[in-house]
Amino acid sequence: MVGDEFRSKVAIVTGASSGIGEATAMLMAKEGASVVLVARREEQLAEVASRIESIGGNAAYLAGDVGDEKYAQEVAEFTTQRFGKIDIAVNNAGTTGKLCDLSELGLEDWEHTIRTNLTSAFLLAKNQLPYLVETQGNIIFTSSFVGYTAGLPGMSAYGASKAGLIGLVKCLAAEFGELGVRVNALLPGGTDTPMARATATTDEQIEQVKGIHALKRLSQPDEIAKAICFLASDSASFITGSAMLADGGVSICKT
User: Fold this and answer.
1) What is the pTM of this model?
2) From the CB of residue 194, how many other CB atoms can be counted at a distance below 10 Å?
3) How far apart are CA 15 and CA 112, in angstroms?
4) Which CATH entry fits the domain spanning 10-246: 3.60.10.10, 1.20.1540.10, 3.10.50.30, 3.40.50.720?
5) CA-to-CA distance for 158 and 195, rounded, in angstroms?
6) Residue 38, exposed/middle/buried by CB under 10 A (0-12, 13-18, 19+)?
7) Which backbone phi and psi does 155 adopt, to 5 degrees?
8) Phi and psi for 95 in degrees, rounded to 5?
9) Which of 65, 124, 146, 190 has the fewest CB within 10 Å, making it most exposed?
């Protein structure tokens, strides 16, 4: 049985095949939204769509590379053709990229991370915004505390791309605010996702990551999804241009 928070709303969620994106798509669908799932892995998208439909929700999916301009256009067109409009866009797809000293970071590695995390956000938003103006909808980008409240060794490309997202948010919020469109960034802390588990691979590394948070634990994807859904909801109707932390206190923790 689905709820009412997003009933009659149409949402795009990128990076929806796992982790935060999957949790966000599931939660929005449970609250009544028709959801378009976007990611590279078609089989995983089909599985998420099937789970949404099993609870009485509406879902469609389109697999592809969010860094491809043609695909970004296709996502917007597919959504409006399937569901008639776009109310919410959660541009969440991303990568940690290559984690290494700057001296070992090649231009190809840098450009891949920037393209996946930042250029894709530009391309998606550019194609979503004409439809969002029509519905006076909103966009949420998934950024990070890395590059905003903290820097971490070996994450120069990641931090730069995530900081760039916040700059994009501020400018889009100023540009489209008078047209009724809200634009925000959600900044998670360490979250228990497949991408994070590929980065911290040992128990010692996981405990170290937990320890830099005030709450001394990682978040679960559904906790971050709830914060994203808050920003997308009418409860956040006067919030735009913000970089909202949902980071377990990692930004303020010195212990």
Assistant:
1) 0.94
2) 12
3) 16
4) 3.40.50.720
5) 13
6) buried
7) -125, 35
8) -145, 150
9) 65
149-to-162, 193, 240, 253 alpha-carbon distances in Å: 11, 21, 19, 11
Catalytic, out of 61, 71, 148, 158 = 158
Non-local CB neighbours of 101 within 8 Å, separated by 6+ positions: 153, 154
Q: Is 131 a catalytic residue?
A: no
Domain range list for the chain: 10-246
Distant-in-sequence, close-in-space partners of 74: CB < 8 Å, separation ≥ 6: 62, 64
- Model confidence pLDDT, tens digit, residues 208-223: 889 889 999 999 999 9
Provide the token pair at 140. Answer: 């949420």
In whole angstroms, what is the distance from residue 232 CA to residue 22 CA?
Answer: 16
- In whole angstroms, how far apart are CA 72 and each of 19, 21, 85, 125, 211? 21, 17, 16, 8, 38
| Count of beta carbons in the 10 Å neighbourhood of residue 79 | 26
Degrees, nearest 5: CA angle 58-68-121: 70
